[in-house]
Amino acid sequence: MKKTQRETNPFPYTDSNKRYYTYDYFLRHTYGGKVAKITLDAGMTCPNIDGTCGVGGCIYCSARGSGDFAESPLLPIDRQYAIQCERMRKKWDTLRFIPYLQAHTNTYAPIERLRRIYDEARSLPGAVGMSIATRADVLSPEVLSLLAECAEQTDLTVELGLQTIHDQTAELIRRGHDFKTFCKGYYALRDASPSIRIGIHLINGLPGEDRDMMLESARTVGELMPDELKIHLLYVLKDTELARLYLAGAYTPLSLDAFATTVAEQLTYLPQSTVIGRLTGDGAPDELLAPLWSLKKLVVLNTIDRCLYERGWYQGCNRT
Asked: Could you tell me where the beta strands, DSSP code E, fall in the chain?
């Protein structure tokens, strides 16, 4: 009898056909069962919005600042959390949750406000950890000290949006900082506490970037040895600067095949110990202009899986 993909899978951190270290596998083996991540909007802003380093945000950002799937920031955090936990319980049989401060920049506020928000989030019922999304250029010594303190009280992951290592692209998308600045913040966070898990975000399909540039970003990030990595697809949302470029014919999104094959090869350059937080991105259906294939998340993930299998690839196999 022919062996299944699972039985012939060479990747060590898996119990399925996945040839990479999935976030689901990490959570189940860390906490002994299913864990759901709960997106929260604490009503933050961003230095790239308020004029500190830019205005209007990155060219792809919606008004919610990546918090499109969170509840309204007008609701208290505990209420947002309760609504989403109830929704998750209908999908999965779990009592374990990770509050995720996702919208905008969640280290960009007065330190006492941050302390109140972090204390509330980590103390929510059923919370087994906490994730904080932010930027590497908004990590003051006071913030780093507070994050280190939080890491002593809960399992803390800090997610840093990088998007690309290429400074010319960062300038084009109005990121507001260069790769050198990112590295400075990354290493300061690493030095602040060995208990803090650090995640990095990359985006594939940024304007002006070809496959080689996207692969170079993955190889370079792999050398940073992040605890977690999220690879996003650049999708076009209504009422953004990217939407204006797209509608004017000045930007063409990646095809499904180009995205899947690029992601598959990127995985081969990453450390096997790096947890893959996600491998795609999907905008809110009523706000999405393109590419519409991104709405079919399972199709996207299955295409990546097939590419890895057909080429004999798996996470880390091309690291030297």
From this structure: 36-40, 97-101, 130-134, 156-163, 197-204, 228-233, 236-237, 275-278, 288-290
How many Cβ atoms sit within 10 Å of the Cβ of residue 83?
15
Cβ(79)–Cβ(170) under 8 Å?
no
Nearest one of 134, 86, 69 to 281, comparing CA atoms: 69
Q: Which residue has the tokens 């709405």?
A: 295
- The CATH number that domain 23-311 falls under is 3.20.20.70
Using one digit for the tens of pLDDT, what is the confidence trace for 262-273?
999 999 999 999
CA atoms within 13 A on the CB side of 271: 13
- DSSP summary character for residue 3: P
pLDDT for the residue 205? 97
Neighbours of 163 (CB within 10 A): 21
- State the Cα–Cα distance between residues 25 and 298, nearest whole angstrom: 17
Q: Is the pTM of this model over 0.90?
A: yes
What confidence tens digit (pLDDT) does each residue in 218-243 have?
Answer: 999 999 999 999 999 999 999 999 99
